[in-house]
Amino acid sequence: MSLPWVTIVPYRSFGVAEQLFVKGRVVYDRPLPPASAADPVWKNFHHMLRRLNSREVPGARVEILFGDQRWQAVADEEGYFSLSLPLAQPVDPAQVWHTVWVRLVEPLARNAPVQVAAEVLTPPPSARFAVISDVDDTILQSHAASLLRSFVVTFFGNAQTRLPFAGVAALYQALWRGVSSVEMNPIFYVSSSPWNFYDFLVEFMDRCRLPAGPMFLHDYGLMRLFSALSHRHKLKPVRWLLETYPHLSFVLIGDSGQKDPELYSEIVQEHPQRIAAILIRDVSSRRRDLVVDSLSESARALGVPMTKVADSAQAAKFVANFGLISAEDVRTVQRAVREERQALR
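Structure for DUF2183 domain-containing protein, as requested:
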C-alpha cells in the first residue's frame, strides 16, 4: 500500500519571553496553490470545498524544536496539536517573531521528511498596547448579515479578489507603529471563520499588507455549533491575551453586524482599566445602531472610549484623540480611504 501525503499546517501564534505557544494541524491533503485574480469562480468554489473537506490525521505525532530544546505533541481526533513551550533561556526581547520548527514523527508519509516553520510573536518592550480585531466585516468585506451574499463572496471569491474595507491596511499599520512610529504594537485576529480557512486568511492579509499577527479561529464540530452562532468562543482568546500580557492595554475592533459590541462590552465590565478604546465598524441597520450606541454609553461610563465608525478614516481620527496614533498617520489613512475608493469606481 502506498504511503499517504501528509501536511503540517502551522498557525501563527504568540508567547512571552520565557514561554512560547505553538498550534497547528496535521492533514492528509496537499497544500492548495496560491490564488490568482484570474482564477475562474468554479476553481475558487472547488478550493473552498477542499478546505472544508479536510482529511485530518488523528493521533499524529510531531516533534517541536526551538534552539537546543525539543518537545513532542500528539494531535487530537481532529488533527490539531498545541503545546506551551517553557524555554531554558528567554528569547531576545527586541525580536518580535520567532521561528519554531515542527517535524512529523508519525505516521510515515510519502513526502517525508515533513518539517515546517511556525511563526510565534512576542511583543517587544517598545509596545504600548495590543490590538484585538475581528475579521469578517471588520477588515474583510463578508456581508455576514445576508446569508446569500455571504455565501457567494465566500465560496466564489479568493484571497486575490476578496475586498478589504478601504484604508483598513493603513489604519492597522498605523496602530502597529503607534504614535512614536517605532512601537510595534502586536495585532491579534479573532474570527468565527473555521481553521480550514486559515491559509486563505493569511494569503488575503499578506496581499492587503495587513500587519501579520496570531490568529484565533474556530473548530466547527457539531458540539461547537451553538458557540459559533453566538460568537461567544471569541471571549476565550480575548481573556487569554489579557492574562498573558498584563502590562499592555488593548484596543478592541469589531463590527456592528454580529455580536462584537456585546462581547467587547462584557470584557469592559471585567477589565475596564485594561481597554484603551473600542472601535465598531458600522455595517448594520439603524435599529442595531441604537443597541450599539447604548453599549457605547455604558462603556464610556466605565471610562472606556467606545464608538461606531463609518470607515477607517473616522477610526483613525478617534484613536488619534487618545494618543494611539500620530496626526500624520491620520492623514495617511484618510488618503488611503480616498484612493482605494476611487480605484473601485
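Residues 167 and 337 are 4 Å apart (CA to CA).
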